[in-house]
Amino acid sequence: MSATRTGESAAPGQADPRRWWGLVVIALAQLMVVLDATIVNIALPSAQRDLGMSDGNRQWVITAYTLAFGGLLLLGGRVADLVGRKRTFVIGLIGFAAASAFGGAATTPAMLFGARALQGVFAAVLAPSALSLLTTTFTDPRERGKAFGIYGALAGSGAAVGFIVGGVLTEYLNWRWCLYVNIPIAVIAVIGAFALLHDRPGHTGARLDGPGVVLGCGGLVALVYGFSEAQPRGWTDPLVLALFAAGVVLLAVFVWWQTRAPSPLLPLHIIRDRNRAGCFLTMMLAVIGMFGLFLFMTYYLQVILGYSPVKTGLAFLPMTAAIVIGSTQISARLLRHVGPRMLMVPGMLLASGGMVILTQMTVDSAYASEILPALILMGLGMGLTFMPVFSTATAGVAPQDSGVTSATVNTSQQVGGSIGTALLNTVATSTSASWITSHLTDPTRREQVVREGIVHGYTVAIWLAAGIMLLAGLVAGLMVTAKAPKHGTPADRPVPEPVA
After folding, report:
1. What residues have CB less than 8 Å from 333, skipping those under 6 apart?
2. How far apart are the C-alpha atoms of 98 and 101, rounded to whole Å?
3. How far apart, in whole angstroms, are the C-alpha atoms of residue 395 and residue 136?
4. Which string of DSSP letters, residue by residue, matches 220-272?
5. pLDDT for res 316
């Protein structure tokens, strides 16, 4: 048999070259899922005009996707473990492409919202399958570093790539192509999956934890929905408070049930591991800061500096390049020699430093001298951090738990994005409003004062994001104590599950 089976280490010098083509397929699918969280942002004004969406309802184009995606990830990860990762990978790709076609052809707001929700459902199946296929395919520390470097680069830069692609498609075609573009990507990935990817059979004898699905997914949906509604309604709105309370209660009962369920949705030994828990928390905190940056910089570049959608997307290109370099050329090379926290802590310090530089921006800042250095520092920091997070969080996991472990990494990313968007946007808008009120003494300067107030709100929120990045670095430094892979447990030798 010429192909090395997934999950088996090839003998030295005999590694199957097709596994790297398999990585291309996995990377394509992951890029599609990640960039769809942001690709429609720049297209949203055009879609709103075309379909007659109200200002109050337009957020559902974003929220419907993140809600289904973030809320159903644990279920998607466990389904992948039960029925087979390759099978769920292909199902996720086909469903995502169909939902994208449905959304691109939308004639009413409800059709578009429904399509985005369906995209989120299939993304929740696809993303854990992609990461767990990567985990079980690349087990040699040297190969694993390269593979996770590429994956980490995509995870970190996918949102920025979404802005670039969204800007180009919106300006030169129309907003519908921000959805249609997924179809050819998915078709290529499906063909590649059948030809190149291999997988162990699923655990068909095991049963799905029904109560765990209701409690865990219900709790996550309530939390993600609560954070998305906190932005337009305010943190003290009764609906927002009720969603947060419901989310906390459901997740608390979920944890209690997982200690008693015969086939738990999320085996608690996965999150009890110190290194894994540290990676999950570091990821969530890092993404809180990163999503805030994307939100503010998109508005700052377009509204304050007057950039076109394409120019705005291209402004993020150096940051994307820095993420790729930090992940594939620095982290992937060093992780074999140093412990993960020796990359994650400096990464978060760099990212926080980039944020601090951005706090100095004004209504007429120069991109090359004041914005660009900050974006490059942010990109390098994210690249240094994401690669060891993905690699460490999924290392040493029993094959039957690789899907749900991958789902937990993705869940921390999604929940972090929801928190970051809601929290930092609330801080920015409230600070802007109070600053404008106190400084608007001359009616003839109203437009200038409003612009200055908006930027002031951004800088205050970015200070908070910089602090959150520092907290992520502290968490990584204290909790992630794993050694370099070549000195620790080989990735292809799963850590034994604790005996009850």
Report:
1. 145
2. 5
3. 9
4. HHHHHHHHHHHHHH-TT-HHHHHHHHHHHHHHHHHHHHHTT-SS-SS-THHHH
5. 84
CA distance 118 to 77: 17
- Region for 13 from its dihedrals, namely left if φ exceeds 0, alpha if ψ lies in -120 to 50, beta otherwise: left
Q: What is the DSSP letter of 335?
A: T
Q: CA–CA distance from 443 to each of 313, 437, 440, 453 (Å)?
A: 35, 12, 7, 14
Q: Mean pLDDT in runs of 10 for the chain (500 residues)?
A: 38 57 84 80 80 76 82 83 86 94 92 93 89 78 77 73 80 87 92 81 66 87 82 83 93 90 82 89 90 77 83 85 88 86 94 93 90 93 89 79 80 81 81 86 80 91 93 94 65 41
Terminal alpha carbon distance of the chain: 40
On whether the pTM is more than 0.85, the answer is: no
| Model pLDDT, residue 499 | 36
Cβ proximity of 60 and 232 under 8 Å: no
Neighbours of 256 (CB within 10 A): 11
Identify the pLDDT of residue 16.
53
Q: Which two tokens stand for residue 358?
A: 């951005």
Contacts of 144 (CB under 8 A, 6+ apart): 138, 391, 395, 485, 491
């943190």: which residue's tokens?
235
Map tokens 């604790």 to a residue.
498
* The pair of three-digit structure tokens given for residue 402, joined into one six-digit string: 């690789």
Identify the H or E element spanning 94: helix 85-104
